[in-house]
Design goal:
Elements: E1 5-7, H1 33-39, H2 42-59, E2 61-64, H3 88-103, E3 113-119, E4 138-139, H4 146-158, E5 163-166, E6 170-171, H5 185-195, E7 201-206, H6 221-231, E8 235-237, H7 242-250, H8 256-272, H9 286-289, H10 293-306, E9 308-312, E10 324-328, H11 332-335, E11 340-341, E12 350-356, H12 369-378, H13 388-400, E13 402-408, H14 416-421, E14 424-428, H15 433-440, H16 458-463
Helix pairs in contact: 1-10, 2-3, 2-10, 3-4, 10-15
Amino acid sequence: MPLSISSDPVHEVPRGGGIASFSLDGLSKWPSQLGFAASRNPALLEEFGRIAAAEYRAMGFTTALHPMSDMATEPRWARNFGTFGSNAGLSSEMTAAYMAGFQGTTLTDTSVMTMVKHFPGGGPQENGLDPHLKSGESQVYPGDNFEYHLAPFVTAIEKGMRVVMPYYGIPTGQTDEDVAMAYNRMILTDLLRDELGFTGVVCSDWGVITGRNWGVEDLTISERYQKSIEAGIDQYGGERDTAVVVDLVQRGLVSEERIDASVRRILRNKFDLGLFEQPYVDEEAVSDRVNQGGYIERGLEAQRQSVVLLSNDDSALPLSTDQKVFVDGLDPSVASRFGLIVNDAAEADVIILFLNTVFNGNQPAGTDRVLDNMLATMIPDDDLNFSPEIIRKAERYAEQATLITIVDLNRPAVLTELEALSDALVGTFGVSDEAMLDVVHGRHNPAGKLPFELPSSMAEVEAQLEDLPDDTMNPLFPYGWGLSFND
């Protein structure tokens, strides 16, 4: 039986995206899904899919554990970084382009199968808490907007989705029992299969039996397997105890016919991907099929297109080559390729301050970057303001020189104080220093548009409803905002 090897995203710029996206050395580098949404360029996203699929297949990956087609309707949710933003129409369009790039018009021996997640939409997390932990088990719909979150999945089914992953959360008040998606027959069978017509594989998120089994904690391991199979799970992520399922069949609690239905779905995908004919990687050809020069440049172009110019007082940008620049948070060796760099902020005409979005309270990175990223994703700071220390630093810089502030928006942030202090404010979504500086220095005219609104205060964030998009009363920058140097 040939293996189907899967991977989370590995093509992102190494800035520490979180628990389920990574940067793998030796591959072309592209913006995050939010960045593609900001570019408003589905054709470029489809091109990325074709390139990424070629690199995946060269390494032996045949299943992509992405895209995330959840809606970024709750600003505090730490996994907004992996979505296409808050607009269901845009997310649907980008999901279709993503699938077309990776899969093609149909699965073949050059395709990579996409596992669209997290059905029926994992964005409306109560108070922004993520269901990787018990504290975030509830998905809530105070705005009665459940259908809105389904839209990208409806499109994905229409476009040939072969595998879907439900999330860990409980769709509170939406079904006849408040249990997690993997155990919820009304979600996986009544809605997904019977109403929406999905015929492919349902693969659970990782560890739903032995770990994140919200709503069924009192059941035994055997009972959890039985209930999830009855709900509609075909395949388990991160679980290994097949003997329990064999025992359920032998005791007549799960029928062989039910197991056969899942096996047929899984085998169909393996056959269509050509794995029975060629299950192995051509090791000698790998280096010729990844990180090609054209791939690298297209990735950089996608990064540039995703940059959003939020404000530009008195045309502070683009910078001129004769200005002395001090950089904080960017690589000086990269910045020196664009102009004159000074080592002392007091000597600068311009100061560029780069900041990551608030996750765990602006803490300095520790020695274990992977653990830092995982904790930031699962236990995010619920305050989207930047720390007083960072604001004081920005105040000092603003007194010394023209201040250009760049914020990597892994999720919405409250930028009200920083916007007031900055001569220009730029939003990015997982791009390289080179791509940022191409825009700052005018080598690329910014054209990106915000994929979600940026709130003006935490009070407005706390007053908005988790399932409604862009519903703060007075956003600092609305959805779709973005300037160019011509504005």
